[in-house]
Design brief:
This protein has 276 residues and is an alpha/beta fold. It is built from 10 helices and 8 strands. The protein has helices at 41-54, 71-75, 83-87, 127-140, 157-165, 177-192, 209-227, 241-249, 253-256, 261-274; strands spanning 29-33, 59-64, 98-100, 110-113, 146-151, 168-173, 200-206, 232-238. Strands 3-4-2-5-1-6-7-8 form an 8-stranded mixed sheet, sandwiched between helices. Helix 6 packs parallel to helix 7. It starts with 28 loop residues before the first strand and ends with a helix.
Length: 276
C-alpha cells in the first residue's frame, strides 16, 4: 500500500521499481477491452506496457484490434511484420515482435506485435483466428513478465474469444452512458461465454475521482444485481489534456509528460493489476 502524503492523499507508486523476481510460471495475459470505441483503450495498453517496462518487467503488447489497429501509429513505428503476416502463415507470432524504445531490458522498452493498420484486411477474421493468436501469445508467455492484448471495441465473437483467452480482463469505460452500457454488455457476454473471473474496471477520462468512482459503483451494482458478479476497480484516470498531446506527438505519455496526472493515475492501475 502507498503511504499517505502530508496532505492525506496516497502517493502514486514509483515509475521505476525494484527488479521483479525471476519468472517461474508463465506470465499472466491481460486483455484490455471496451464495449465502445474512443474510450482510450489503446492509450492505456501502451501506457501500461511502458510502465511495466520501466519497472523492469519484460512486457509484450499485442494489438488484437483486427479491424482498425493503431498501436503502431500511436507509437510512430513501422513494423516489418504484423498479425496479418501471422494469420496468413508467413511467419510465427514471435517473429512479428517489434522492439519499442529499445525493447524489453531498456528503460520503458517493450515488444509490440502490431495489427494491420490502415487496412480492413483483418476485419473479417473469425473467432478461430483469435483462438490461434491467443494460443500463440500463451506459448510466448514464459518469455515475458507481462503480456497485454489490446482488443478491438465491441462485443462480437472475436472480441469475446480474446477476452476469454486472457487471465485478466480489463474493461475500459468513461462517464458517458453509452460507454457504460456497452461495457456492461461486454461483461455480460463474456460471462455467458464461460468466463467466471470478475473483470477489472478502468474509468477513463473522468472529470474527477468522485465522479469516476460513481461510474464504477453504478456499473458494479448492475453487474452484481443482474450477473451475480462484482467487477474489481483497477483505477480511475482523470481527464488530462496532455494525453491527447502525447497521442498527437506519437509518444508514450511517460516520455512526453512524465509528471502528468494521467500517468500518475495509470501507475495506480498498474499497481492494482500487479497486486493479483
Amino acid at each position: 500500500m502507498s503511504k499517505p502524503s502530508p496532505t492525506g492523499q496516497a502517493k502514486a507508486p514509483a515509475l521505476a521499481a525494484d527488479a521483479p523476481r525471476p519468472r517461474i510460471l508463465p506470465a499472466p495475459i491481460t486483455a484490455i477491452a471496451s464495449g465502445k470505441g474512443g474510450v482510450g483503450k489503446t492509450w492505456l495498453s501502451i501506457t501500461l506496457s511502458c510502465i511495466w517496462g520501466r519497472q523492469g518487467r519484460k512486457t509484450l503488447l499485442v494489438d488484437c484490434d483486427l479491424g482498425l489497429a493503431n498501436a503502431d501509429v500511436q507509437l510512430n513505428v513501422r513494423p516489418q511484420a504484423d498479425l496479418n503476416s501471422v494469420l496468413k502463415g508467413w511467419i510465427d507470432l514471435d517473429a512479428a515482435a517489434t522492439p519499442i524504445m529499445g525493447g524489453p531490458g531498456r528503460e520503458g522498452g517493450f515488444d509490440l506485435i502490431a495489427g494491420h493498420s490502415g487496412s480492413g484486411a483483418l476485419a473479417a477474421a473469425r473467432a478461430e483466428d483469435a483462438a490461434r493468436i491467443v494460443e500463440g501469445v500463451r506459448r510466448m508467455s514464459p518469455h515475458y513478465d507481462r503480456l497485454i492484448m489490446d482488443v478491438s471495441a465491441g462485443v462480437d465473437p472475436t472480441v469475446q474469444r480474446f477476452c476469454r483467452g486472457a487471465d485478466k480482463l480489463v474493461v475500459v469505460t468513461t462517464e458517458e452512458p453509452p460507454a457504460m452500457m456497452d461495457a456492461y454488455a461486454l461483461i455480460k457476454l463474456t460471462k455467458l461465454g464461460g468466463t467466471h473471473e470478475p473483470p477489472w474496471i478502468v474509468v477513463n477520462m473522468a472529470e474527477n475521482r468522485v465522479r469516476g468512482r460513481k461510474v464504477y459503483d453504478q456499473l458494479a451494482a448492475a453487474c452484481e444485481q443482474h450477473l451475480g458478479l462484482r467487477p474489481k476497480l483497477a483505477g480511475i484516470i482523470q481527464r488530462d489534456p496532455r494525453v491527447s498531446d502525447s497521442i498527437r506527438a506519437q509518444l508514450p505519455i511517460a516520455v512526453r509528460h512524465p509528471q502528468s496526472q494521467a500517468l500518475e493515475d495509470a501507475l495506480r492501475v498498474a499497481e492494482a493489476l500487479n497486486g493479483e
